[in-house]
Automatic annotation (TrEMBL):
PANTHER family: AMINOPEPTIDASE, XAA-PRO AMINOPEPTIDASE P-RELATED. It comes from Halogeometricum limi. GO terms for molecular function: aminopeptidase activity. The lineage of its organism: Archaea, Methanobacteriati, Methanobacteriota, Stenosarchaea group, Halobacteria. Keywords: Aminopeptidase, Hydrolase, Protease. Residues 33-183 form the Creatinase N-terminal domain. Residues 192-404 form the Peptidase M24 domain. Pfam families: Creatinase_N, Peptidase_M24. This is Xaa-Pro aminopeptidase. It comes from the Archaea.
Length: 424
């Protein structure tokens, strides 16, 4: 199926708030996300869901959860749409002032994560876990839901036991399924967030073109690019830049202090760059000076392999059908790795969902999809990535896309027909 043409004026419109055009409507996005979760929660027969996982909390509350010590914030979604949120004292105080859409914010007790771990005391850990569970039980009683099943998005045995000892009917699998189903397709504002983060990554690619020089270290160029991403309002929680022999196989330390040399291939992966929480995964390859014929052929293979997959993506197809478009074991260069099966080649050639996490539904991969297929749906967003060796170096390329009724639409726009040449 051919790539879908973007609609007129479909594209990024800036990150600032304006009154003269509609941009990302964050209030609408919060409300639509919560409504999706709430509708599926009711269908699953749950009276409430306790969310401990940061992306799930953000999906329902809009709060900018960025990871950390674990369970020092958690949210309870109730069947009438109300939300009770617990957080650390400082954060809770701030949220009460800045988040008027949340009207029941309480102080958290971290029963999981670094706080109980650092206590060094079994009795302290038991106290914290019991207190965390009790804060939720108290809220369930206040809202008249203590006798209804409660979903829980983490299968921590200690926390489940703490709730069960207090008479709560805990449903972990149901909650996981509810949130997965709510998040697997994206609203128009979520898609625009991903389009915006792709545009921000392109500012980073341009910075690499401007700043990469022979003799400059990978870490220096990467630092220049990251500075540009932050300047555009992104939160950079991952990514790397490698060069020369560090490009095949991918260097285990990612960005290093290696000096870039004439004739090097350079590639950058802007993954886990977030805009309003929505994460990128976006590769491009560069050449220091004109690439060799071997490098051009490797790039052409990687790009053709990627676009062969894009042509197969459409609503109604299964991940098993699409996975067949990825390279076979010979195309994966399995002999180079000494690998016998596709599952041994994680992250080399695959497509993965994008959203409030780097890896979301769906996953399209020869190592998994043929035996465990799921159906592709309109509104899914994903990154599709391939790679290819070029002598002692390698190329990588990746696109960010959204599944439409008539194919896929590219959210990424950096030129892909050939390697970007950096003159020196």
């Amino acid at each position: 199926m051919p790539l879908r043409e973007r609609d007129f004026m479909s594209g990024t419109r800036g990150t600032m708030a304006v009154d003269w055009e509609e941009r990302i409507d964050v209030k609408r996005m919060r409300e639509e996300r919560k409504e999706r979760a709430l509708e599926r929660m009711r269908d699953a027969g749950l009276g409430s869901m306790l969310l401990v996982d940061d992306p799930n909390i953000r999906y329902v509350t809009g709060l900018a959860m960025t990871g950390g010590s674990g369970a020092d914030h958690y949210s309870l979604l109730l069947e009438d749409g109300a939300v009770v949120h617990w957080d650390t004292a400082d954060h809770a105080s701030n949220e009460r002032y800045n988040c008027p859409w949340l009207n029941d914010i309480r102080y958290a007790c971290p029963g999981l994560g670094n706080v109980p771990r650092a206590s060094g005391s079994d009795s302290a850990r038991s106290f914290l876990l019991d207190k965390m569970a009790q804060t939720v039980v108290d809220a369930l009683e206040e809202y008249g839901l203590s006798n209804e099943p409660m979903g829980l998005d983490t299968g921590n045995g200690g926390l489940v036991s703490a709730f069960e000892s207090k008479g709560v009917d805990v449903r972990t699998d149901d909650c996981t399924a509810v949130m997965e189903d709510a998040r697997k397709t994206k609203t128009r504002d979520e898609i625009e967030c991903l389009r915006q983060v792709a545009a921000i990554c392109e500012a980073g690619f341009q910075t690499i073109v401007n700043e990469a020089e022979v003799g400059k270290r990978e870490s220096e160029v990467w630092g220049d690019a990251v500075r540009e991403l932050w300047r555009h309002g992104a939160m950079v929680q991952g990514g790397y830049l490698t060069s020369g022999p560090n490009t095949w196989p991918k260097h285990q330390a990612n960005t290093t202090d290696r000096s870039i040399r004439p004739g090097d291939l350079v590639y950058a992966d802007f993954y886990n760059v977030g805009y309003l929480g929505y994460r990128s995964c976006y590769y491009r390859t560069f050449s220091m000076g004109e690439p060799t014929r071997e490098q051009e052929e490797a790039y052409e293979t990687a790009r053709e392999n990627l676009y062969a997959v894009l042509e197969e993506i459409e609503p109604g197809k299964t991940t098993a059908e699409i996975a067949r478009a990825f390279p076979d074991m010979a195309g994966e260069h399995a002999d180079w790795y000494g690998a016998d099966e596709h599952w041994q080649l994680t992250t080399n050639h695959w497509a993965h969902g994008l959203g409030l996490q780097l890896y979301e539904v769906p996953l399209v991969w020869r190592g998994l999809s043929p035996d465990h297929p799921i159906e592709i749906e309109e509104g899914m967003t994903m990154a599709v990535e391939t790679q290819e060796p070029a002598g002692r170096q390698g190329v990588r390329v990746e696109e960010m896309v959204v599944v439409r009724s008539d194919g896929v639409e590219l959210l990424s726009q950096w030129p892909v027909e050939e390697i970007t040449v950096i003159d020196y």
